[in-house]
Amino acid sequence: MNSDTVIEVLEAVDDEVFAAFGRLIPLLSTNAPIPDRDRVERVLAHPGNTVFAARAGGAERRILGLLTLVRVELATGTEARIEDVVVDDAARGLGIGRALVVAGLEAAVEQGARYVDLTSAPRRVTARRLYQSLGFELRETGVFRHRLDAYR
């Protein structure tokens, strides 16, 4: 990680944070809708979410990456997931993704999680290599998804 990079927890939405979500979230998926300000505010305010931002760039401290740690309280214990990890194309290879994931793992420990899951598409070879280097293991699961469009 570049020495001028700082990882912080986002607590509130200002114009810079909102702009960062609008700029970075589309890098995750071309199908992902660009979040409006209300969505970003709800994500940051949700008690199960901890949203991290990586800032770099000297005096302007521009947000170059985001990560959301999702904590779920269940009868069987506290679980956590890392979601929406994204780094600006211009900042890839600088260790920002690694720093964000480490911050998420450390927060999961502090929040009492038993483990942290994340998903990463097979086409994201570099990201998957990063996750494995940090101790994540590929699991064979039967993840099911039910789209709720029919209920709306």
Short structural description:
With 152 residues, the protein is α+β, with helices and mostly antiparallel strands. The protein is built from four helices and five strands.
- Specify the CATH homologous superfamily: Gcn5-related N-acetyltransferase (GNAT)
Counting helices, strands and paired strands, the structural category is alpha+beta
Question: Which of globular, elongated, flat, extended, rod-shaped describes the shape?
Answer: globular
Q: Ends: how far apart? A: 44 Å
- Written as H for each helix and E for each strand, in order along the chain, the element string is EHHEEEHEH
Biggest sheet overview = 5 strands, mixed
Top CATH class: Alpha Beta
Textual characterization of the structure:
The chain has one domain (6-151): Aminopeptidase. A 5-stranded mixed β-sheet has the order 1-2-3-4-5, with helices on both faces. It has 4 helices and 5 strands, in the order βααβββαβα. The N and C termini lie far apart (44 Å). A hairpin with a 5-residue loop joins β2 (49-56) and β3 (62-74). The mean pLDDT is 92. With 152 residues, it is α+β, with helices and mostly antiparallel strands.
